Amino acid sequence: MDNCHLKVVFLAVALLPLRGASLSYIKLEGFKTIRNSAPVYQLICASNKDFLGCTVEFLLNGITQENIRYANNTCYKGNGVCNPFQCACFDGCKNLTWYYTQHKDIENQLFECDARIKDNHVFYQVIASGSFKGGDFFNGETIIKRISGNPSPSQKAPMYTDSIDGTFRKEENISNYNLWLLIINTVFTCLILIIICIGLCMSRKWIWRKMRKKKKTLYVAKR
Question: What is the pTM of this model?
Answer without folding.
Answer: 0.59
